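Following the same procedure, sequence and fold were stored together, as reproduced here.

>
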Amino acid sequence: MVGVVASGLVIAMAVGFSAWCARERSLRRTHPMAGGAHTEIQLPHTAEFELYHNDFSLCSKKIRMCLAELGAPYLAHHVDLIETGGYETLSRRFLAVNPAGLVPVLVHNGHPVYESHEILAYAAEHAASAASLTPVDAAARAVMQQWIDRSSLIGDEPMKALEATAGNCVPGLTVPLFTAMMRDIPVHRIVEGLLFHRLKMRPMGFLAFKLLGLSRIGAFGPVRRLIVSSRAEMVRHLAALEGQIEQSGGAWITGSEFTLADVSWAVIFERLQEACWAEALLTPGLQAYWSRLRARPSYNEAMTAHRHPFVSAGADRIREEIARRGDLAAVYAL
């Protein structure tokens, strides 16, 4: 009799959980959104500019630095990613802001602007600012756009196109940091992504990093190959960047004028530092460029002031693992 009751309870719980999942999936449906401003959408707002962002998100860093350079005040809404605590991007509240479930989103007078490269251009055009982040000269603007594109994270599976952009190399190089940060994230939070994330491979990857742990990812063939390939392509992108700065004859990518291209590359350098790659990958010339970037007040406002404690703890764990001279240390030393 007890066994029958227990079986009945298990079945009832399974049915209840399945019903809950089905309902939540219907309420948390995600779909891609076209980049740019959506004037047909009106969101609740209390400020001219509102930014939905994440402290750790590469694209969020870019928009924060852009707005800081422009001196454009905004109301900030921090939205957690799994790396910083949970899938808040999959919450009903946030999906009402961006049905794609992605940060950042800039809201201007209630109208959302999607995709970071589109947000950059939109903010530079619409913020009331004496500063200009786009060159007047058409040739310089074309160079700026070329280097914005080369820094961008593009596609649902960016790691399959490492040669296309430096931004696409960033996820692979961030794997050690992702793994270190997952130690602080409960498994049930990652499982939420398996239930509701549009791209199942992403939460599956985070779960694998959690289970493998930092001491083993350097020896795990597929992960090691990804990191090594990402590193090799990033070196190529960085060499091209250094060549462009030298060719420009100035302190910045297009010459003497600081532009949106420099904003876009600043976040790449910040991630290399966060994931403990800067020392290994940055030449003296690029170190000098990075020093100039860090000297700008916008860098501190957009990045240093938003350093998440999980990132700092993760970087410490990577350094400890490198000091152990295991498989991960060998990957960093290549």
Observations:
- The chain has a mean pLDDT of 92.
- The CA atoms of residues 9 and 15 lie 10 Å apart.
